[in-house]
Design a protein that fits this description.
Blueprint: H1 3-14, H2 27-42, E1 57-60, H3 62-65, E2 70-79, E3 85-93, E4 100-107, E5 112-116, H4 117-124
Parallel strand pairs: 1-5
Antiparallel strand pairs: 2-3, 3-4, 4-5
Amino acid sequence: MRPTAVYLLTLSMLAGCGGGPAPLPSNDAARQALRTSLDAWKAGKPASSLAGEKPSIEAVDFEWKAGKILTDYTLGDEAPGQGTQTLSATLTLKGQPPSKPVRYMVLGLDPIRVYRDEDFNRAMAMDNAPSASPRPTR
């Protein structure tokens, strides 16, 4: 292969890597991914069970991960988001007050990533996380 062709191939491969915002699913695809995620949680399945969906779904919700039981939910409207599809939902968790309004950020195409707002904000702030304190020396 000629050096120019190698250079152009490398540039075309790098063009899709980092740098720009993540692709967003359509409103319908984002709503369906959230519905599928919440249905799995309600059915007692782990978030990892969504990897087999088409497109695959990566769901991140700290209460789901902590083992809390979702007994019911209702989906709300789309909300303005910052580079994501943002959807509201009202969750009912076993042993918790009846209605808990939350927001989910949905991005990506395959996989579609569904983040609870707190988890999304935590993931986005990882760059700004404090560094580990040094171990004391003896």
